[in-house]
Amino acid sequence: MKNLIKYIIIMSVFTAIVSCDTLLDPIDENRLDYDFVSSDPASAEGILLNGYSRLVDQFTFIDAATDDAVNNQLDNNFKRMALGELNAQFNPASRWNNYESILWVNKFLEIIEAGEIVWTSDEQMNEMFYLRMEGEALALRGLHHFYALQAHAGVGTSGELLGVPYITEFIEADGDFNTPRLSFEATVEAIMADFDAALALLPTDYGLSDGDVDPLYANYDFDKYDVVNGSRYNLRMSGRIVRALKARLALFAASPSFLNDQGYYNMAATNASEILNTIGGVSGLADNGVDFYKKYDENDDAEMIWRGTIGGPNSGIESRMFPPSVNGTGEINPSQNFVDAFPMQSGFPATEANGYDPQNPYANRDPRLTEFVVVNGSSFGGGTINTGVGGGIDRLDSIPEFSTKTGYYLKKLLRPDVRLNDDGSTVNQRHYDVYFRYTELFLIFAEAANEVGGPDQVINGISARDVIAAIRERAGLTQPDDYLASITTKEAMRELIRNERRIELSFEGHRFWDLRRWGLSLNETVEGAFFDGIEYNLGIPVEPRNYQSFATYMPIPNDETLKFPELEQNAGW
Question: Is the pTM of this model over 0.85?
Fold first, then answer.
């Protein structure tokens, strides 16, 4: 936390925000003091924009610390963690540094509460800038506390289920950081309070037309409103995003490893369904939800609740993930465990279905399998990828730290139209960070609604069965779905929903946290597959998982607990 100091270093932080004209006169050490920052709109907004740092996107690839994949880089931190090195001194999944973003937004809230910033000479517009930016800051403060809670909540050495410290003010470098953790539920309530306060200030969406404006802003001149809350702010925190975050938080809190609470399940389902009904309920499920990553287009954005800016053409992710024969380093290798999660085309689990042939294991399977995974014989990246006999450098274990360890390469999240040519040239494509997709919200609803009342519990016109049917139909499973129709109990639907979540949100950083909140085993050995030229050998042990029994709850960083005795460590660490 002490990395944030009293003076804000403007040259490194606000280069893109403050114009050259603002800095005509030199300032000692290139630093702006509090008096300047608290009265200069661009500098103050720059502080708020730091709250948008450390957002968690889909490119963490922490899935390689689960049973879904391995990382072929021997020194990869998530590999080391999964193999048994996780401790309070070494935790690649730590999010304690999100407190720095929290301090930034607290500094911004301190500035605007002083009321000295004049965004514009127009009184109405100035007032709306205050409302909207305060809402953004409160929502970001809640979100960064959620990130910390997700990573560090747990049963403390006292035996109490604990959350994290909740910081609501800016703390100077020499201030008191010795703050105790709140109880888990008190932390959840504090985050919810910030989210609710933000909802009272933020527009539901940016770029609304006249007549659709939220009641808070209805009495303002629309042309002025559009300047403050127009479509140019579409990627900033909005009321819609906050409602979705509330549903995510409520589901997390309700989960078996935490409160296992019907009230929070109901809250998650209610918030999710209310948002989903604004897009038409299950009929609003975006067609491109399965393959959103193949084309990043601001005009085809129906799957996105919240994303980042579309970046310039590049091939950085693909160079890490493409198989070696098409000039990648094949870093993430999906597991046989993950492949087994995909049902047959009929919808029945592969292990239970008539027609599954282990010697032709990818035939008649859920189409999502070959959308997400490069299997033996696939065409991908400009070549044919064979991971068995005759596969050359793509073959299982052919080249250390390049070839697959499991018999599979990753396809999901990669642009298939990227090319990494033999001569070193590339065909690059655009990408963006994803923070929240509608498919996740549908799955949040399905899980929560099922826990409230089973597969057919209707909340705001939607049931868990409705959602899973729509997702499986979009995926291309044969309809009517006889397997889904056979599911009649909450317990059976729970397993199906968890499996659909595993598939749909795969390699977007969810399963690592899902296993923990569900209280499921963290130590399933990762398995692979090999085609020896005659037959497939499936279920080959590849890499163990070696988590401590108490690793459901991750540690507080050791240096923090040493410096601040009020911080109680989670049990076992």
Answer: yes
